[in-house]
Amino acid sequence: MDRNEREARRRQEDRALNKALIWVGVSIILEFLLVLVNRYYINFNSSVESINRAVAIQAALIGLRWVSLAAVVICVVWMLFQLSKNGKAVLPGVLSIAAAALLLCSHVILQFKDSGLRMLFWLVPAWAALALVYYLYQREFFFSALLSGLGLLGLWFVRHTAPLSLYTILTVVVLVLLAAGLFVMKQKGGLLQLGHGKARLLPAEANYSLVFLSFAVSLVVIALAALVGGSLSYYLLYAMVAWLFALLVYYTVKMI
């Protein structure tokens, strides 16, 4: 590798690091906002000022939920249009993810209150970790971790709602759609193609074995928890965390 190639690679790595750090910074801000919501909305006291503040935060969360839902629809349509046109949909894709994150946070807080907020305290750092993996690590690990993370989310919904609740079903639908999209990308050498536009999400030589195995593991644990009952999901959560740790060890060793 000559000097120019090393310099180009260094610049590319710096850009990837900067993008990952932006997501980490946004996650830190979101985590701070969750702390404020926990302090003034979940754990408010009986004073008139505290009650009024909690009511105002609830109204803001309801408004945020509807605004972010509209933003998700608009950004996804924009992203699909850009992909079909020229394959360049970074901005609408990022905005879609950000709007979806706000939608999920606002809805979970409004619907599940204290337990939902505790889950988000873990979920937001997980988003930051996924961003670091996407930009700085192996893409196969990113998608394996994403599918496994959806399995964890499905287990949480089984535990805190009915086993076959709408939330659990939606999680399974997202899992299946994501796996189907990855299967199509595998046939196209890691390219996401829509119309005339193309975007490379995985290298052509990517190994999809653990990616699809992670999908199967997530489906199995959600099905087991839904069939046996929410109490089993508590123990399966630890099994999924152990699976994620095993994936981390495998892909780390693979890089050496």
Describe this structure as you would to a colleague:
The chain is mainly alpha-helical and 256 residues long. It folds into 2 domains: 1-136, no CATH class; 137-256. The chain is built from 7 helices and 2 strands. The chain has a two-stranded antiparallel sheet with strand order 1-2. The longest helix has 47 residues, at 90-136. The two termini are 19 Å apart.
Q: What's the overall average pLDDT, rounded? A: 85
What spatial form do the alpha-carbon principal axes imply?
Answer: globular
> How are the strands ordered across the major sheet?
1-2
Total count of domains: 2
Number of helices: 7
Structural class based on helices, strands and sheet pairing: mainly alpha
Distance between the termini: 19 Å
Order of helices and strands: HHHHHEEHH
Number of distinct beta strands: 2
The major sheet is characterized as: 2 strands, antiparallel
Radius of gyration: 20 Å
- Which segments are poorly predicted (pLDDT under 50) over 5 or more consecutive residues? none
- State which percent range the strand residues make up: under 5%
Helix content: over 70%
Task: Explain briefly what this protein structure is.
The chain has helices at 3-42, 48-85, 90-136, 139-160, 166-187, 209-228, 230-255; strands at 191-194, 197-200.
Key features of this structure:
single chain, 256 residues, mainly alpha, 2 domains, two-stranded antiparallel ribbon
Helices and strands in order:
Elements: H1 3-42, H2 48-85, H3 90-136, H4 139-160, H5 166-187, E1 191-194, E2 197-200, H6 209-228, H7 230-255
Antiparallel strand pairs: 1-2
